[in-house]
Automatic annotation (TrEMBL), chain B:
InterPro entries on file: ABC_transporter_permease (IPR051393), MetI-like (IPR000515), MetI-like_sf (IPR035906)
Membrane topology, as annotated: Multi-pass membrane protein
TM spans (from-to): 7-33, 67-88, 100-121, 148-172, 199-218, 260-284
KW Membrane (keyword) present: yes
Residue ranges of every copy of the ABC transmembrane type-1 domain listed in the record: 63-276
Similarity field: Belongs to the binding-protein-dependent transport system permease family.
Principal location listed in the UniProt entry: membrane
Protein's name in the database: Sugar ABC transporter permease
Short name of one Pfam family: BPD_transp_1
SUPFAM superfamilies, per database record: MetI-like
Organism of derivation: Glycomyces niveus
Length: 458, 288
């Protein structure tokens, strides 16, 4: 349920890059886009007109038109276009028609386009949708295109993200992770020390949050991360030595771990370290509108590639920490993820050209210099190293955070099995039931296991 | 013959539009009996989708949400419409202006902007909570508490009583004043006049409005979609039937199931419309 599914936006801007199936962010910009959907169809119609006019440019032999679609905002559009312009200049025979929109409607439109046999050549693919498409033969296996794309430069984490049973159905558009941001100005104002981000425990987080809430008289709540965002849950689950999804595509989390996750937040909510039930109302999803930027929270979890936006919204007062518990847990919980993959449609009329464009976006430093880290740190380690110096300070902070993680020995994570995209919906419902005390954490945990297992096993 | 041709010419846009309806109409009827994931060809599975619906707790939840919404908000919004129409029917000055003002919300009610506005009005720091605060009532999380979210949308629906109101108003003006005068001479109270003159003479219009509102209400989508970013939350408390249908079709790739849901909704609406028609002979008065 943009949906599907969907976490609450307050804390959940975390979910703006979210693989998991949920709604789009609701803000003015997106609404404009929603209302502009009708307009978006117009270029399509125009294209038809050309077709009827007697042979598209494809047949004439002097050029190829690729259709590329992705989700994001105007800033990302500008940066992406800059990269594409470089490619088109070097490949005058290739024209790229771009369409972009918000993540919620994007997902629906992509499915419809496949159904209508009008799949785009190159598309942004959500991690949780990858196998929904790939298992049904809709995506091109890139491993057969070794001449057109070089995947050897991908960092190990990036390569793992892209691979399904030996086939490669997508290349990470960039790499990111989740990180904990803390308002340094609040910490100072309320006389609470910012914990050491590399070694802090969940108890340290609770103590920090409690101190802020108490000192501010709950004007500012100490912390407010999202219980129902899968990326947050995943770290916790991995720290307990389990996997949300196992290698053979099953649900790997235990009821006890889920219950502990609900209890972790429930406990902080009871003492006031975490806001009361109903506090997050999902109005606004951008960094500017986030609760931390509004000064109602002192800390939350965000995707690292959004750090620049959040830090600007908080006037540069944010510190970027790791998720708590990394040094105390059974094993490391953090993992390297990607905001989305780039995939090529199996039915693309120009697979070679589409793959070459993908190669350019992945391996050419020029492309990454143009796009920056709007989709995360470049998947190729060499490219990432090369563009580092040109990044803005906040992007550099996020990039170094991620490269730090990459350099460490993190347990491998496995991608969503088919049906996995429904899990975000179940968690969203159950988390609210538990939040409002309509379900005990134990019952909520049991129900989650039952629902999620049923969804995956079909 | 020539005359007929002009008629058909005027009907042409309808025929063309009909093509765009009729094809998907029958396509979805076929898809309802298939397993269709949008990416691969549909596979015939007979009545399996329909059987699955009975085992789907989320579907039952969405039915419950839709029924509660319909059976609470339709009577209340019709009552509000009739009430305001009667107020406006007293020959006040500037009637067209008032009529337009009261009609406005129903033009906007299903729009994204107003549902959003509604969320701010009912937000934790919104004016509703501020108002309740004056009476010492603690702030309620209207939009994020699963116990209240649907109530918020029901109130929105009641507020958008404009179109039935305009129709009621037209109907009220058709009632000859002499009936009221005669009744007044006979000493009938206001309530008595309302019950014995207004209601019976207005019953065909009430009937029409009831059917219209029922059908529209069963098909509610936008409010639930916007309320929770397409999710039907919190905790599925605003997951309207049509919203769940949309999720199944476009998010979960179960287009066959979604088609089966669509046809089931058609049957549900048909049944309730039939019931309303059946009861009509007991309360709808056509003798004038």
């Amino acid at each position: 349920m943009p949906p599907t599914p969907c976490p609450r936006e307050g804390t959940a801007s975390v979910t703006s890059e979210r693989p998991p199936g949920s709604g789009s962010e609701l803000n003015r910009r997106n609404l404009m886009k929603l209302s502009g959907l009708g307009l978006a169809a117009v270029p399509g119609l125009a294209a038809c007109g050309r077709g009827f006019g007697g042979g598209g440019d494809d047949e004439s032999g002097d050029g190829v038109t690729l259709n590329m679609v992705w989700w994001g905002d105007a800033t990302r559009a500008e940066k992406t276009q800059a990269a594409l312009d470089i490619f088109m200049e070097a490949n005058p025979d290739i024209t790229i028609e771009v369409e972009y929109q918000d993540s919620g409607p994007y997902q629906d439109k992509l499915a419809t386009r496949f159904a209508a046999n009008d799949a785009p050549d190159l598309m942004a693919m959500r991690m949780d949708s990858l196998r929904e498409y790939a298992d049904r033969g809709a995506l091109l296996d890139l491993s057969g295109y070794g001449d057109d794309i070089d995947l050897s430069g991908l960092s190990e984490n990036a390569a793992n993200l892209a691979e399904v049973d030996g086939a490669v159905f997508g290349v990470p558009a960039g790499l990111n992770a989740v990180g904990f941001v803390i308002r340094k100005d609040f910490a100072e104002q309320y006389g609470v020390a910012v914990p050491d981000g590399d070694t802090w425990s969940w108890d340290d987080l609770a103590a920090f949050a409690q101190a802020v809430s108490d000192a501010s008289g709950k004007e500012v709540y100490g912390t407010g991360f999202d219980v129902q965002t899968l990326q947050n849950l995943v770290v916790w689950v991995r720290q307990q030595g389990e996997d949300l999804f196992t290698e053979d595509g099953r649900l790997g989390v235990s009821a006890a771990t889920m219950e502990a996750w609900f209890d972790l937040v429930g406990g902080m909510r009871e003492t006031g370290a975490y806001p009361p039930a109903g506090f997050f109302e999902e109005i606004g999803g951008s960094a500017d509108q986030s609760y931390i930027a509004q000064g109602k929270l002192a800390s939350q979890i965000i995707p690292t590639n959004n750090f620049l936006g959040y830090n600007e919204a908080c006037s540069g007062n944010l510190a970027l920490l790791r998720i708590p518990g990394e040094t105390q847990a059974v094993r490391r919980g953090q993992s390297v993820d990607c905001p989305h993959l780039w995939s090529v449609a199996a039915t693309s009329k120009h697979p070679k050209e589409a793959v070459r464009l993908l190669d350019f976006l992945t391996n050419d430093p020029e492309a990454s210099l143009a796009t920056g880290t709007t989709r995360g740190v470049p998947a190729s380690a060499a490219v990432a190293e090369e563009i580092k110096d040109s990044l803005e300070p906040d992007d550099l902070t996020a990039t170094e955070y991620l490269m730090g993680l990459q350099a460490e020995d993190l347990p491998r994570s496995y991608t969503y099995p088919p049906g996995g995209s429904a899990i975000a919906d179940f968690l969203d419902v159950i988390a609210v039931e538990v939040e409002f005390g309509r379900q005990t954490p134990a019952d909520g945990a049991a129900q989650f296991i039952a629902d999620a297992t049923a969804a995956i096993e079909g | 013959m020539r005359k007929d041709r002009a008629g058909y010419l005027f009907l042409l846009p309808w025929f063309i539009g009909m093509l765009f309806t009729i094809v998907p109409f029958f396509a979805s009827l076929y898809l309802a009996f298939t397993d269709y994931n949008l990416l691969n060809a549909p596979v015939w599975i007979g009545f399996e989708n329909f059987a699955d619906m009975f085992r789907d707790p989320v579907l039952l939840k969405s039915l419950q949400v839709t029924f509660v919404y319909t059976f609470v908000s339709v009577p209340l919004s019709l009552a509000a419409a009739l009430g305001v129409a009667m107020l406006l029917n007293r020959g006040i000055r500037g009637l067209p202006w008032y009529r337009a003002v009261f009609y406005l919300p129903s033009l906007l009610g299903a729009s994204v902007a107003v549902v959003l506005l509604w969320r701010y009005v009912f937000g934790f720091d919104g004016i509703v909570n501020a108002f309740l605060g004056w009476f010492g009532i603690e702030a309620i999380s209207w939009t994020s508490d699963p116990d209240y979210a649907l109530t918020t949308l029901i109130i929105l629906h009641i507020w958008t009583f404009g179109s039935p109101m305009v129709i009621f108003l037209a109907g009220l003006r058709q009632i000859p004043v002499m009936y009221y005068e005669a009744a007044a001479v006979d000493g009938a109270s206001k309530w008595r006049r309302f019950r014995s003159i207004t209601l019976p003479l207005l019953s065909p219009i009430i009937f029409f409005n009831l059917i219209q509102s029922l059908i529209a209400s069963f098909q509610t989508f936008t409010q639930g979609f916007v309320m929770n970013n397409g999710g039907g939350g919190p905790a599925n408390s605003t997951l309207f039937y049509n919203l769940y249908l949309y999720q199944q079709g476009f998010n979960q790739f179960n287009m066959g199931y979604a088609s089966a849901m669509a046809w089931t909704l058609l049957v549900i609406i048909a049944v309730f419309t039939a019931i309303t028609f059946f009861t009509a002979k007991y309360w709808v008065n056509y003798d004038s």
